[in-house]
């Protein structure tokens, strides 16, 4: 087991959900906001061509220091000249709250090939007091994981609090990605999974 595989934090905790969404026949994958490449390298185990993009140069420098046949780009995902409909799978973990969520989801939708899969793990803002029981449960679960697994602090910039609430994020996903599956998770995360229609 490598040092990387032993890392744990709230983002890594949900990586398996992303990886389970990858289509068996995927040939090209994009990791949006890849940071130092933990998920990107995992994607490369099953997808032949993987690109990671991030605005944070020090994180990309760390990603490139790891062995692995991955194309890392320092750049703005919203404006980088990717070809439309050029990826079979697009993954994004804890990145949408760093940009305008509407623009981000729309761009991901447009870069996905028909039949391709978009898999997002994101952070949103709780609304109190309605979300207090969820907050208390999350604190308890997070504390347990940190005690039993430790905690790895990623090198990428942090945006807190997220600008969009959970209900707002659910509504955006339904509007921009009709038929997508939205789920709220325990450790201050939500997921969106969507397969782009073929027609």
TrEMBL record:
Name the SUPFAM superfamilies for this protein.
S-adenosyl-L-methionine-dependent methyltransferases
Q: Does the keyword Transferase apply?
A: yes
Q: Which residues belong to any copy of the Methyltransferase type domain?
A: 30-119
Q: Name one GO biological process term.
A: methylation
Q: Which residue windows are coiled coil? A: none
Q: Which domain of life is it from?
A: Bacteria
Q: Could you tell me which CDD domains the record lists for this protein?
A: AdoMet_MTases
Q: Which GO terms describe its molecular function?
A: S-adenosylmethionine-dependent methyltransferase activity
Family note:
Belongs to the methyltransferase superfamily.
Q: Identify this protein by name.
A: Class I SAM-dependent methyltransferase
Q: Origin organism of this chain?
A: Microbispora oryzae
Its lineage reads: Bacteria, Bacillati, Actinomycetota, Actinomycetes, Streptosporangiales
């Amino acid at each position: 087991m490598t040092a990387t595989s032993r890392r744990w934090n709230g983002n890594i905790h949900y990586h398996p959900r992303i990886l389970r969404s990858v289509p068996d026949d995927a040939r090209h994958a994009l990791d949006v906001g890849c940071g130092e490449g933990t998920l990107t390298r995992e994607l490369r185990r099953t997808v032949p061509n993987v690109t990671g993009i991030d605005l944070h140069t020090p994180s990309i420098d760390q990603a490139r220091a790891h062995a692995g046949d991955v194309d890392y780009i320092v750049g703005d995902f919203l404006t980088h000249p990717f070809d439309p409909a050029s990826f079979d799978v697009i993954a994004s973990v804890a990145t949408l709250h760093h940009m305008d969520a509407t623009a981000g989801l729309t761009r991901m939708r447009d870069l996905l090939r028909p039949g391709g899969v978009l898999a997002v793990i994101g952070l949103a803002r709780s609304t109190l007091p309605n979300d207090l029981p969820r907050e208390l449960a999350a604190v308890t679960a997070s504390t347990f994981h940190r005690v039993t697994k430790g905690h790895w602090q990623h090198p990428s910039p942090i945006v807190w609090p997220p600008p969009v609430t959970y209900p707002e994020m659910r509504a955006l996903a339904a509007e921009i990605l009709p038929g997508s599956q939205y789920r709220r998770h325990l450790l201050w995360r939500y997921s969106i999974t969507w397969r782009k229609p073929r027609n």
